[in-house]
Amino acid sequence: MMQLYFDVQHLYYIPQYLPVLKELKEKGHKVSMVFYKEQDECSRAVCCDFIDKNAIVAKWLTSASETFDFYQNSDADWVVFGNTFVGAENLNKKTVLMQHGIGPKQCYYDVSNNKMTVRFVEGEHRLQRLKMLYPEGNFIDSGYAKLDPIINQTLGTINLKNLGLDPTKKTLLYAPTFYPSSLECFSDDFPEHFDEFNIIVKPHFFSLFKKKYKKQRLKLDKWANAKNVYLANEYDFDLTPFLELADIMISDASSAIFEFAALEKPVIWCDFYKLRWSYRGIFSYRLKARLDEDIKYFNELCARAGSYKDLKYLLSSSFNESAEFKEKRKEIVYKLAGITDGHSAKRIVSYLEEHQ
C-alpha cells in the first residue's frame, strides 16, 4: 500500500487529480490532499465543500512557505504537484508533476525547469519536445487523465434542467481563460445575440476573484441575468461536466480547446483579446513569449474567429464540419493530448505502483 499526497495550490488543479486519486483509492492506497489556509475566504469555503462532498482526507498548511518541511517530514511515498515546485529535487520523497492544463502557454514546458521524479505528459509531440528541452528529465506519455470520466461516462453530475436551461436547445459553452482573454471583447448583449442557444459561461477561477479582473466580472454579471445563460460560480471549478453537456464550445488561449476537440465536438477559437498596454505595440513580444508555438495547431482543430462579429456565422457553420476536417482533428488531438481511451489514470497509477 502506498501513501500519496496531492498538492492543491489552486482549486483548478483538482479536476486533473481526481481520476488518478479515485483509481488509487479503488486499489487500496492511502490518499490525502494538501490545501492552504492563505487562500482567500471564498476559496477556502469551496475547498471545504469539496472535501466534505468527496470524503477527502485533507491536510491544511498555513502557507506555501511550510510546504517543503511538511512533505520532507511526511509519510509520503509520492507527492503529486499540479505545477512547478521549487526545491522538488531536494525533497526526500518521490515527486510527480501532472500539469494542470494542456494549453498553448509557454509555461507548459517551462515548469519542467524544476526536476521531478516523473512527469506525466500527453502525447508523443509534447513528450519529444520535453525530452529535447530537458534531456535529464523523466517523462511518461500517459494521456490526459482529466478527460477519463467524460470518455468513460462516469460523471453524470448535472443536466440542463438542473442549470435552469432548455433541453430542447443546443448548448454553447464559453470557457475563456483569464489572460490573455477574449471576455472583455464580447458584447454586453452576448446572450441576446445568441438566444437560439443555451449558454454556459465558465470563466477561469482567477476571473471570479482576482482584483485585476474586476472588469471581467462586470461583464459576467450582466450576462448572468439572461434566461438562456448559466454562469458557473466558484463551486463549479471543474470544467469537465460542462464539456460533457455542451454541443459546441468557444474559447481563447485555453487548454479547454484541446480538451473539447478531444471529445470530437466543434470548437471556435476566439483569436481576439483584451490586452494590457504592457503587452501591446513595442511590448507585443511579451504576448508571444507567453503563448507557445503549439497555439498554431488551433487552426487545425477549430474554426478561427478574428473578432466577436465573426461568431454568428461560425456558430452556424461549425456544425457542418467535413469528414476531412474531422480526421485531421483526430490526428492533432492524438499529437497534443495523447491517447484518449479513458485509461490515462490507470496508466499513471500502474507506473506509480511499479516504481514505488
TrEMBL record:
It comes from the Bacteria. InterPro entries: Glycerophosphate_synth, TagF_C. It holds the Pfam family Glyphos_transf. This is CDP-glycerol glycerophosphotransferase family protein.
